[in-house]
Predict the structure.
Amino acid sequence: MPTSRAATDRPHIGLVMTGGGARAAYQAGVLSGVLQVLDPAGSPAFRNPFDILCGTSAGAINATALACRAHQPHRAVDHLCALWAALHVPDIYYADAPRLMRTGLQWLAMLTLGWIRPQWSSHAPHSLLDNQPLSQLLGRTLSFPRLRTNLSRGHLQALAITATAYTTGEHLTFYQARGEIRPWTRTLRRAVSCPIGVDHLLASSAIPFVFPARAILLGDRTLWCGDGSMRQLAPISPAIHLGAQRVFVIGTNYQDETQPGIRELSPSYPSLAQVAGHTLSNIFLDGVSVDIERMTRINALLARIPANGLKSETLRPIQTLMIAPSRSLDEIALEHLHELPRAVRTLFRVLGVSPRKRQAGGGALASYLLFEAGYTKDLIALGRADSMNHADEIIAFFKEWSA
């Protein structure tokens, strides 16, 4: 493998990582497998294979962690895997019984008595869970000065993360690039060039209703932002705008969850857990698959245009490779439900989550919020195995890059 990044004839490769809460541990495993395929010896001189890193929700956190250590790709991925493998729920959100009970009582009071005293709504809780511990974890583990250094030294071309502005309804892409890249604007989509920090990551990963929104200052306006998976009409678009000619996508959704076919209908009324699980799945699923299908059709059309006919056009063919779980993460989550703190387990049981009740959607809620080492280690192992099973495709995808 060459160590210089000066070659101008090789394609720029973008990495796109989708959202999914605790499911994003799978992405760390996939990346571990990719590096094992590309550089089995683990050479210290091995260079970062991804020029452009893009992430949404928990994928944004993974992307930023890689960007901060882009000068040492193997160590970056090892560190990411170790971080996910050591996680526990209290590292991400408060899970003690007093806090959960207080939040529950506040919601109950607002819903039952708020119509009598409307002014009480100003004291309503902002979310089901408080993810302040995640803020502290990110502050301890991420080095944003090192991110700037990696960009300036060419270890990385750009980092982009996405969020949704509740204030305006826009899908926002915050990006930090090595060179000058003009912000782009599309219908309900806007790119913002800025130094990325912890607040951007907390905004991108603020699952609606579950975690609180974050205030982001844009110019003289304050925008309250939530999870970037909402209104994400074109997940791969930021990587292309930032110069990627090939895009490697890591999903967090088992194919049978995005294309479920016909399932046995349950005669009972759906539980709150099923409704919440399907709601989160609708936020996190499908977007990337639809975007890749759209890109494949565009590539087929561009292939019919003579090569000299594309010189003055902004459209260009984009090669993609996507790796997604070969097993249902919902089912894996139900196997590890007992690892949750007792208070969270009780909350899930009230909502209808149980390993003995495996209705469609019942395990989805747990799969997003089960930040426990047993579960995340299984996802890392699955991701690594899935990468190794796609070794030939990975080698072909990176062929010109590694030549």
User: Anything to note?
Assistant: The chain is about 40% helix and 15% strand.
